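Action item from last meeting closed. Structure (175 res):
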């Protein structure tokens, strides 16, 4: 007996899903075409602009990798998100994108203050329009999934403190 790909999917899901349903769901779930971390960087940069240029310690924001210098920096990583079902009327898959924010600081208190500032901005933000590369995105909300977590001191001899916090974002492309 030969079973086609769609027949296996129907068999495994008890006939609830067929191959065309899966393909349709995957196409619709691609709400945005760029990294959610890069979009969030635009939002965080804009909101922290006064703090970043306040004449105090300089802070730089990076995506996906933390460089060896500067000592004081913010890095936003894309992490696992959640597919949260489909809307009945149009079949749109609701995607919540995962991100992690990591702050590295020469001074413990400066790092703690910076990551809690970022949390305050994200926790207050809803229905924010963010523009990246002339494309508008809507940040419906950012749900904090972990408390601010101090990771201790880097292993290397620079003695810089690390902090992280994780979020799930509801973010979509505005057409």
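Sequence:
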């Amino acid at each position: 007996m030969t079973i086609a790909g769609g027949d296996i999917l129907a068999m495994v899901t008890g006939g609830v899903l067929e191959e065309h349903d899966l393909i349709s769901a995957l196409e619709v779930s691609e709400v945005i075409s760029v990294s959610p971390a890069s979009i969030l960087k635009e939002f965080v940069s804009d909101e922290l602009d006064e703090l970043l240029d306040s004449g105090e310690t300089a802070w730089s924001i990076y995506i996906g990798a933390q460089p060896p210098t500067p000592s004081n920096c913010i890095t936003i990583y894309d992490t696992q998100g959640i597919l949260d079902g489909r809307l009945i009327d149009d079949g749109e898959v609701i995607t919540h994108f995962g991100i992690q924010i990591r702050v590295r600081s020469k001074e413990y208190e400066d790092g703690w203050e910076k990551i809690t500032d970022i949390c305050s901005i994200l926790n207050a933000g809803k229905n924010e329009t963010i523009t990246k590369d002339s494309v508008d995105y809507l940040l419906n909300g950012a749900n904090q999934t972990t408390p601010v977590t101090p990771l201790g001191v880097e292993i290397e001899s620079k003695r810089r403190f690390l902090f992280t916090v994780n979020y799930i974002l509801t973010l979509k492309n505005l057409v």
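Note appended to the action item: The two ends are 47 Å apart (CA to CA).
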